[in-house]
Amino acid sequence: MHKFALALGVVALAVTVLALPANAQLSGAIFTTLANGSEVNFNIYADKNDVYLDGGPGPGAPQGAAGLPDGIYVFQVTDPPGKTLLSTDIAACRRFQVSAGIITALVTTNPTCAAPHVTGLDVDHNATTVQLMPYLDTPNNGGEYKVWATPVGKYTCPLTAVDCNSDTHGFVPDDSKTDNFKVKVSNVREIDTRFHDTNNNGALMDGLGITWIDTNGASNGKWSYFNQALQVNHEAHVEAPENGAHKIVVQDQTGCLVDEVFLNGKRLPNFGPQTVSVKMLASYKNITIVVDVNCN
After folding, report:
1. Are the C-beta atoms of residues 275 and 281 closer than 8 Å to each other?
2. Same domain, 137 and 276
3. Which of 76, 109, 155, 250 is least buried, going by the fewest C-beta atoms within 10 A?
4. Residues 115, 130: one domain?
5. What confidence tens digit (pLDDT) does each residue in 221-268 have?
6. What is the domain range of residue 75?
7. How many domains does the chain have?
8. pLDDT at 24
């Protein structure tokens, strides 16, 4: 959603390693949607009750892209830094089953959950969507929230508890997927990655992916795609990034051997696959930071 452009030279960044960290993240992605799996513009929801969790390859992913590994997961809602747990029910009530890479059901037994979450159906790939409510209002002034998901075997709190003094409310960032969303606000903050075909006059390319690593060290997969109604213009977009240092991992993939990488029009010193560090400041309100990748 390349709507607001950041002036050149405003953001200081560092280019680091040439591949993912050694502790590779989960495959696939999680993302927030409406009950029927449809996206909302800029990931801004009118009401907290409208927000559902979906999972799988993610919007814009190419056919055959990896979904979440099969198994049982726990989710939570926090403020963007992950300091404040906003989910109010016990963890046992926040479990879901993944089969064939997508969410297929809630898990409400062993231990029993007395008040299951509301579910919907993603009409695009026949997946179950899970309403995130109940959760408290965020303390974040920008109306931002973060949803997490982790395999139940990696969760470090008791399933019978709402919270405990372990890791990030029981979630280890390296073993977690995260996505951000907003409720009842209009400010737009994004990090958008665009892929250019150098063999076709720099034409923008869809179906190419990046890994976003948030300020906690948790990750999520994003893919470039086009949706005019949502103002998604051939880009892999990270919505509502919180203050702090984010990483965009750009790798070689089918259709793109990475050559040059640019941040807001400035070419970075390294060539080829790399990790771009982008710092989001509290002063950034309506802003889009753009990473451009030239593909051979």
Report:
1. no
2. no
3. 109
4. yes
5. 999 999 999 999 999 999 999 999 999 999 999 999 999 999 999 999
6. 29-183
7. 2
8. 59
Position 73 in a domain? yes
Q: Are 34 and 179 part of one and the same domain?
A: yes
Burial letters 60-98, b for 16+ CB under 10 A, else e: bbbeebebbeeeebbbbbbbbbbeebbbebbbbbbbbbb
CA distances from 286 to 3, 240, 282 (A): 9, 10, 11
Sign of CA dihedral 245, 86, 77, 175: positive
- Is 259 found in the same domain as 285? yes
The residue written with tokens 């907290």 in the block is 48
Residue length, the chain? 296
SS3 50: helix
Instruction: Decide: residue 260, CB within 10 A, 0-12 exposed, 13-18 middle, 19+ buried.
Output: middle
The model's pLDDT over 170-192, given as tens digits with 9 standing for 90+, comes to 999 999 999 999 999 888 899 99
In a domain, 1, yes or no: no
- Sign of torsion over alpha carbons 70, 181, 84, 92: negative
Residue 92 belongs to a domain: yes
Which one of 183, 217, 252 terminates a domain? 183
Q: Quick one: 156 and 237 in the same domain? A: no
Residues of the chain with pLDDT under 70: 1-24
Determine the pLDDT at residue 3. Answer: 41
Q: What is the pTM of this model?
A: 0.91
